[in-house]
Structures are given as structure tokens and as C-alpha cells.
Recover the amino acids of this structure.
């Protein structure tokens, strides 16, 4: 730009000097042909020369190229014939005022070609003053067509402010727009909401179906979100699977929630990609101006925090920002840092909760439950740190540590002939089960601790068997016709081949199609404690327990009831012939030394169970 301006100025100066020289030489009016020869032919801008009245007296060839008019069509006319109609009267009168005052005008202007096309140009108009008195004798205009340059500028603008894939505004434009929305909102006391939308499990699509499928999905998601918004709302893509929305001038705090719910609903419909039905869900965080901040940074960060909270609370939901969240997130972050060194610092501890064999009345097995003795927060239970371990991948080394400790305990108790507990059950979360290393881990730990595999049980959850849930992408669906290629199937078989037992934990809470179970060789079903808790409160739960029991029997699996808190529950389980019971009524989880003491001096003995069984019979098979 600058270079061409300088060049142009240079041309003017030499042009003026040359004109003056000619005038001096000939002491006559402008010799048009001479001027044309000198300048007109040598520049690549269009040139128009007019007389004092503004009538065109000369043009160059470039001008004809730009405007489409021949010299004959132009000469004798007024340059007004090129006006596009875009600029108003004031614009031109202001322009002429300046030319009269300064002898020069330069600016960007829209003109019209002969074919009707309107185009932008840079126009310079100079007054031609001649003679010693500098008498005004006409005007010369040079102009260059900048439509190509404009096109490039608009492409650059597109690149800088819009997302290439979806065509939505990008993070830069989001920032600018939010800032300007906030300015307006401050001035007019409006409410603005920011929605941070993040797809759940998007990576799965990219990983399993390829990036092309991921791209289609993102476009479809953009369309669906947009359909849930008002004209005045701005949807932007921040990157990856993250979208942000600005809701301007909302009338009530309930509006953003309503829109978030609508987006979640819109996304819940299936999406067809490459002949597959895909279900996508999103987690949405909401922050509101002025409650949750009054700057771009604060509102975005708080909407992001709220989105994380929505993920933690199970995904496929929205969450309004709450200041307590920042505290929660800071704590989560601290815990994550601390957890990295928890094994090394010997802060992890195993607790053992015994399981009563309902036939013999003896504690024969125990579940291993992890605790973290945190230096400042005290003893933490799994719910407080297992999710972090899963998210960070720390669950793999932690899981291996648990396995090693548990196997060492088994080996130890094996040697104590009089100690009744021989079998231990270790929890394995889906993140561990899906890790290809699990079988190798089990094998090497068993070998290392010289533990008899038959006394080790692994508790998996239904979600391991059926990673597909209604709210996840369903292409994970297990193809039972193709078992050998199925991770779940092969992992279970390999674990069985090692000789350990496998049980399904928290049974009844997942989404499993019950008939599914028979496809796998599983040893035991653990009825989730929520059913036991409600067995006398909700008729439905009683029916569910009975169904689970019947099904377990059919499949030749043992049954464990967890969460037994009172004698009535135990009686119900006896009546329904459940094999094992575990719960606070019998014993709380305890560290190793304590459980050893507890078992040795247990008030539980076969006699007590016999008594309860008798009570059951006496009560005429009726449970209160
Ligand atoms: P879970 O496997 O279902 O374990 C049973 C949970 O119920 C334990 O909670 C236990 O303390 C609690 N419980 C036992 N009896 C009763 C009762 O009578 N009433 C009530 N209300 N609760 C009872 P805990 O120890 O907090 O463990 C929670 C969950 O954390 C476990 O549920 C398990 O899924 C997971 N977990 C525990 N240890 C590990 C581990 O080493 N690795 C992995 N991956 N997960 C673990
Ligand atoms: Mg368990
Ligand atoms: Mg359980």
C-alpha cells in the first residue's frame, strides 16, 4: 500500500513538473496529447482529466479497462456517470470542499462499471493549477481498482475470524463479540449469558470412525445447536469439540437454562454418519453477566468451570456456574497433584470388608476397598479420588498397587491355616479393564506374590461388559457374532484362563440387557446396595432383587448382597437364598490388622446365623 502510494506521488510530482515545463515552453493551455503521451500510457492506474466544469477531456486506456467505457463514451461527459449510488450527496460535497481547500482528495470510493458491476477503487483527485499565479485550470483523477485486494482482505478476515470447518465465528471473534456485548449490557443494564458446550466422548468418534466422520459430526452439531438459538444469539466454535454461545439481552435467568436444555434435547436425536447411527451428548456450562463476572476472561472461565462440573456430575447435562465450583476445582487440581506421589509416599491403604457365607455362617472372603491417607485432608474414600485417578490415567499404577497389596495379603492369609478369609475381591474400574495391560498385570502380580489365582476375584462393573450406554456413541456395541475380536470377550476369557474369579459389581444399576450375561463366563453377581437399602421401602426393588437372584441361579452364578445394614435385610436375603452378604450390619471395612483382630474375636459365629435362620422360619416366612 505504502509503496504504491509513494510511487503514485512520485508520478504526480513528475507529472506536474512536466506539465509546468510544457506550459512554460509553449505558454499555452494544456497540450492534451503531449500529456497523454508522457503520463497516461506509463501508469497502471486509470486517469481522468477534466476541465474546470468537470467535463472529461481525457482518459487513459487503463481507465477504459477498469470502467468498460471507451474514451469516446467518456470524453465530454461528467465523471458522475461512474457513480455507484452507494455514496450520498454529502459525501461528494465534502470531497469537493476538500479539493477546493487543499487542492487534493484521496479516498476509497465505490464506482460502477459500464456492465453495472459496482467495484471499490482508490481515487486521487488533484486540482491542476498552472502559470505563475497558479490558476486553476482543471482536475486530474487517478484511480485503481481494488476489488481483488478487497476480496483478499475479506478472505483474510474469514480466515482470521471464522472457523474453517463449520464456518462459525472462531475464538477471536467470540472474544470481540463478547466484549462488545458486555459494553452494551453495561450501558443498558442487560443480562448476558455465556454457554460453554463440550461434546462428551467426541474423541471416540475420531478414533474409531476417522476424522472425516468427526468433521461431519461437528458440522451437524453446529447446525443443531444453531437451531436451538435465537437470531440475536451468537454461536462460535472455540476449537476441537468446544462451542461457545453468547446470549445477549436475556430477559430472565431461566432463559439460558431453557436454551441449554433445548440444545441437549436437539443433540440427543441420532445422527447418521457413513451408514451408522451415532448418538452424541454434550455437557454445557453457563455463566451469567453480571452475577458471575463482568469481563470476557471471567465469564469464559466460569462457564468452562461449570461445564467441567457438568461432566463430573455424569455428562449430558448443563450446569450453571456457582462460585463454590472454583473452590471445588482448585481442590480437585491439588488432589490430582498430590495423587501423583501418593503411592511413593505410602499414603494409599487397603481396607477389607468381610463377606459372610450364608450357608456356613463364616466370613470366607472380603472385598478390598482403597483409602488414601491424605496428609492434610485426612482419610479419603474412593469417590473422592478414584474419578481423578481415572481421568488422569493414574488408575493404572494405582490399580496395580492395589492388586499387588491384595495378592500379598492373600498369600499371607493362605499361610495362616486358622484364618478363615481366603478369598479377596479387588475392584477394577472400566478405565483399567479397557487398558490392554490388565491381564499381563494380573499375571505378573500373581507370580510375584506367589498368590493362588483361585483366591483372587476381580469386580468389574456392568459398564465394562457393555461400554455402550444409551447416552454414549453406540458403535461400541459388542458384536457377539464376532467375539474373538471383541476386547471385553477376549479380556474376560484371558482372565478366566489365568484362573481368577470374576464378579459383576453394583449389578442392576447399569444398562445391561440381562440376557447379555450368558455370553460371558462370570462367577458372581453383586446386587447393588441401593436395592438392599430400599427392599422394604419400594416394592419395585424387592421385585428387582428377586429377578436378579433368579437370573443368577439360572446362569449358575453366585450371589452377593452388598450394603446389608440391618437384620431384616439379612433375613430377606436368607429367605431368598442369597449366597453371601456384606455390609455395615456385619462389619465395616477395616485396615488389615484390624480385620484380622475382628475376625479372630468376631461376635459373629455360626450360631448367630442359625438363630436368624430360625427366626425367619418362625416368622412364618413373613418379613416385617
Ligand atoms: P463398591 O465396590 O460397590 O464397594 C462397596 C462400597 O459400599 C464401599 O464404599 C463400602 O465401604 C460401601 N459399603 C459397604 N457396606 C455398606 C453398607 O452397609 N452401607 C453402605 N451405605 N455402604 C456400604 P467405598 O469403600 O467408599 O468404595 C466406593 C467404591 O469405590 C466401590 O464401590 C468401588 O467401586 C470403588 N473402589 C473401591 N476401592 C477401589 C479400588 O481399589 N479400585 C477401584 N478401581 N475402585 C475402587
Ligand atoms: Mg466392589
Ligand atoms: Mg458395589
Amino acid at each position: 500500500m505504502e509503496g504504491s502510494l509513494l510511487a503514485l506521488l512520485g508520478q504526480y510530482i513528475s507529472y506536474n513538473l512536466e506539465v509546468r515545463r510544457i506550459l512554460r515552453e509553449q505558454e499555452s493551455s494544456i497540450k492534451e496529447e503531449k500529456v497523454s503521451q508522457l503520463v497516461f500510457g506509463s501508469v497502471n492506474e486509470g486517469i481522468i482529466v477534466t476541465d474546470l466544469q468537470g467535463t472529461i477531456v481525457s482518459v487513459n486506456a487503463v481507465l477504459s479497462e477498469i470502467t468498460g467505457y471507451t474514451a469516446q463514451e467518456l470524453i465530454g461527459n461528467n465523471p458522475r456517470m461512474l457513480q455507484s449510488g452507494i455514496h450520498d450527496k454529502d459525501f461528494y460535497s465534502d470531497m469537493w470542499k476538500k479539493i477546493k481547500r487543499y487542492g487534493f482528495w484521496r479516498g476509497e470510493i465505490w464506482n460502477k462499471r459500464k456492465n453495472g458491476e459496482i467495484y471499490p477503487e482508490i481515487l486521487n483527485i488533484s486540482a491542476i493549477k498552472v502559470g505563475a499565479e497558479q490558476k486553476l485550470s482543471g482536475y486530474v483523477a487517478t484511480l485503481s481498482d481494488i476489488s481483488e485486494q478487497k476480496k483478499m482482505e475479506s478472505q483474510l478476515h474469514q480466515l482470521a475470524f471464522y472457523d474453517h470447518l463449520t464456518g462459525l465465528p472462531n475464538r477471536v471473534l467470540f472474544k470481540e463479540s463478547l466484549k462488545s456485548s458486555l459494553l452494551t449490557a453495561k450501558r443498558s443494564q442487560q443480562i448476558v449469558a455465556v454457554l460453554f458446550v463440550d461434546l462428551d466422548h467426541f474423541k471416540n468418534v475420531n478414533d474409531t470412525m476417522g476424522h472425516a466422520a468427526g468433521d461431519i459430526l461437528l458440522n451437524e452439531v453446529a447446525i443443531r445447536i444453531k437451531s436451538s438459538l435465537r437470531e440475536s444469539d451468537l454461536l462460535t466454535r472455540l476449537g476441537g469439540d468446544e462451542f461457545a454461545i453468547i446470549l445477549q439481552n436475556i430477559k430472565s435467568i431461566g432463559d439460558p437454562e431453557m436454551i441449554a436444555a433445548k440444545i441437549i434435547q436437539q443433540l440427543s436425536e441420532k445422527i447418521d454418519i457413513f451408514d451408522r447411527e451415532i448418538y452424541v451428548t454434550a455437557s454445557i456450562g453457563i455463566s451469567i453477566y453480571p452475577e458471575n463476572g463482568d469481563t470476557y476472561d471471567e465469564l469464559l472461565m466460569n462457564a468452562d468451570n461449570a461445564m467441567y462440573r457438568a461432566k463430573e456430575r455424569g455428562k449430558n447435562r448443563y450446569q450453571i456456574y456457582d462460585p463454590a465450583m472454583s473452590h471445588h476445582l482448585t481442590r480437585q487440581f491439588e488432589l490430582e497433584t498430590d495423587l501423583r506421589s501418593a503411592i511413593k509416599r505410602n499414603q494409599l491403604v487397603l481396607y477389607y470388608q468381610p463377606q459372610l457365607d450364608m450357608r456356613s455362617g463364616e466370613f470366607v472372603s472380603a472385598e478390598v476397598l482403597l483409602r488414601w491417607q491424605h496428609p492434610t485432608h485426612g482419610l479419603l474414600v474412593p469417590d473422592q479420588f478414584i474419578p481423578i485417578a481415572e481421568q488422569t490415567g493414574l488408575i493404572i499404577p494405582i490399580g496395580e498397587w492395589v492388586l499387588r497389596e491384595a495378592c500379598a495379603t492373600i498369600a499371607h492369609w493362605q499361610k495362616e491355616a486358622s484364618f478363615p478369609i481366603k478369598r479377596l475381591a479387588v475392584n477394577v474400574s472400566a478405565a483399567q479393564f479397557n487398558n490392554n495391560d490388565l491381564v499381563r498385570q494380573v499375571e505378573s502380580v500373581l507370580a510375584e506374590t506367589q498368590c493362588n489365582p483361585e483366591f483372587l476375584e476381580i469386580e468389574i462393573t456392568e459398564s465394562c461388559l457393555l461400554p455402550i450406554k444409551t447416552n454414549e456413541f453406540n458403535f461400541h456395541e459388542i458384536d457377539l457374532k464376532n467375539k474373538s475380536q471383541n476386547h471385553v470377550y477376549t479380556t474376560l476369557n484371558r482372565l478366566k484362563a489365568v484362573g481368577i474369579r470374576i464378579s459383576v459389581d453394583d449389578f442392576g444399576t447399569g444398562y445391561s440387557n440381562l440376557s447379555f450375561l450368558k455370553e460371558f463366563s462370570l462367577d458372581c453377581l453383586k446386587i447393588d446396595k441401593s436395592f438392599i437399602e430400599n427392599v422394604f421401602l419400594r416394592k419395585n426393588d424387592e421385585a428387582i432383587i428377586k429377578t436378579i437372584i433368579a437370573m443368577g441361579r439360572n446362569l449358575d452364578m453366585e450371589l452377593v448382597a452388598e450394603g446389608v445394614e440391618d437384620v431384616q435385610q439379612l433375613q430377606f436375603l436368607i429367605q431368598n437364598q442369597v449366597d453371601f452378604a456384606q455390609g455395615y450390619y456385619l462389619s465395616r471395612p477395616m485396615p488389615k490388622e484390624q480385620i484380622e483382630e475382628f475376625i479372630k474375636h468376631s461376635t459373629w459365629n455360626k450360631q448367630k446365623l442359625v438363630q436368624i435362620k430360625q427366626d425367619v422360619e418362625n416368622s412364618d416366612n413373613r418379613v416385617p
